[in-house]
């Protein structure tokens, strides 16, 4: 355990990437409960998100104040370009049909968990690693966004080459915007709210090809 702790502290960029991949990919591999919205929300997003929050605060200098409402208005405005993607989803698939409470719970937990893992953990670690190398915050935003985008390559079996490339590209752009918002405002909630809205407008039952981050 001491070696792991030493590695995490000495290699924040690499270790945060590994932690992020572990917390995002492993639950998806182990989870086989298709259609069980509430249970999936807990085991794939809430629990990994809690672990990511603890690791980000313990090792990467993140603050739990990122989950407070301080800076919410700024973070919400910084992330508002996502409204364009929400509009694309609505144009492609129409307005969402009646959404069940467990699906609303899934949407909220997915947005919360992915933002904590992708921004509070991954970006914070990337920022520390970039600073140690003299690269600056823009490099950390790009690095964390690229990793966030590449993570979506796990959907290759369901989407094929073209669909996966498209999703990796636009999710990297979303990751960059949300990381920039988090860095500027110190608040995650703008990204969480817009992430949830994007998920809502891309619900499979209402969309033939929605942009789901």
The assigned structural class equals mainly alpha
The chain-level mean pLDDT equals 88
CA radius of gyration is: 17 Å
Give the DSSP E fraction (strand runs of 2 or more residues).
under 5%
N-end to C-end Cα span: 34 Å
What does the largest sheet look like?
none
Low-confidence stretches: 205-209
Order of helices and strands: HHHHHHHHH
Shape: globular
Helix percentage? over 70%
Helix count, per DSSP?
Answer: 9
**Number of distinct beta strands:** 0
How does this model look, in words?
The chain is mostly helical. It contains nine helices and no strands. It is globular.
Features:
globular, 9 helices, 213 residues, mainly alpha
Strand and helix map with partners:
Layout: H1 2-10, H2 12-30, H3 37-59, H4 72-78, H5 82-93, H6 101-132, H7 137-151, H8 156-185, H9 189-201
Helix pairs in contact: 1-2, 2-3, 2-6, 3-6, 4-8, 4-9, 5-9, 6-7, 6-8, 6-9, 7-8
Question: Gist?
Answer:
The protein is built from nine helices and no strands.
């Amino acid at each position: 355990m001491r070696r792991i702790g030493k590695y995490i502290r000495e290699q924040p960029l690499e270790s945060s990437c590994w932690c992020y991949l572990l917390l995002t990919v492993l639950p998806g591999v182990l989870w086989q409960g298709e259609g069980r919205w509430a249970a999936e929300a807990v085991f794939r997003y809430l629990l990994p998100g809690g672990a990511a929050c603890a690791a980000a605060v313990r090792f990467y200098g993140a603050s739990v104040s990122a989950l407070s409402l301080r800076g919410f208005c700024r973070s919400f405005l910084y992330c508002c370009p996502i409204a364009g993607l929400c509009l694309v989803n609505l144009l492609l698939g129409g307005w969402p049909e009646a959404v069940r409470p467990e699906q609303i719970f899934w949407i909220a937990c997915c947005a919360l968990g992915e933002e904590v893992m992708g921004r509070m953990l991954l970006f914070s670690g990337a920022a520390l690693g970039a600073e140690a190398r003299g690269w600056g915050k823009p490099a950390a935003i790009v690095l964390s966004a690229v990793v966030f985008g590449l993570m979506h390559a796990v959907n290759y079996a369901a989407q094929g080459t073209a669909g996966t490339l498209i999703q990796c590209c636009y999710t990297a752009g979303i990751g960059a915007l949300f990381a920039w918002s988090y860095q500027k405002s110190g608040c995650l909630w703008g990204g969480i709210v817009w992430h949830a809205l994007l998920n809502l407008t891309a619900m499979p039952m209402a969309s033939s090809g929605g942009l789901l981050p």
